[in-house]
Amino acid sequence: CTKKEEEEMTNRLAQLLQLSGGFISALLIDKWLNREEDPAIIEARSQQLLALVTNLGPTFIKVGQALSIRTDLLPAPYVAGLTQLQDAVPPFEGALGRSIIEAELGINLDRTFSKISLEPVASASIGQVYRATLREGGQEVAIKVQRPQVLYNVALDLFMLREILVPLYQRINPDSNTNLRKLVDAWGEGFVNELDYELEAKATAAFSAAMAERSLG
User: Fold this and answer.
1) 8 A C-beta contact, residue 197 and residue 191
2) Selection from 200, 195, 165, 201 nearest residue 180 by Cα
3) What's the confidence (pLDDT) of residue 86?
4) In which residue ranges of the chain is pLDDT below 50?
5) How far apart are the C-alpha atoms of 68 and 73, rounded to whole Å?
């Protein structure tokens, strides 16, 4: 690693610890006070975990989505809140998304579209979607844009997960029989593939063509 990369890893680790410190402390206090089974406490921790994962960014949102169906890795009551990540991820700033569209496509939105939504109409872990109407031809289109620096941030977080957080978790939970590093590798491969919107567009076109050939519309 270069010195800059080491600094960025150190800064990100500090950020992760700062954001998660309150939640971890609350869990330890719950254990100390023997109130882990209290329904009110469980509900509160579930919502805190949801907020924490959302604040940690795209990688952890994606991991949270995966964990929401893996009660073998986390206690079911605390994972319950993560199910909300399946269909509700907060968007990033609408104006920022529109500026990214202009920069990456090399266009002027007002010249290209007669109308475009000011805010995204849908959002997910790695991007969000705007609704627009082309000036030329009047066709309605969906514009999908990724979160800023998402590829770099995902790569950094996956490295942190694999090399630092997973070994730490395994020391705390030595009885775990899941190979978490391989699990992170599998998540990471799928996640990085999702970042290739050109590949996704080709797959969507192929799917649409296959449906049309079968008269399924």
Assistant:
1) no
2) 165
3) 66
4) none
5) 10
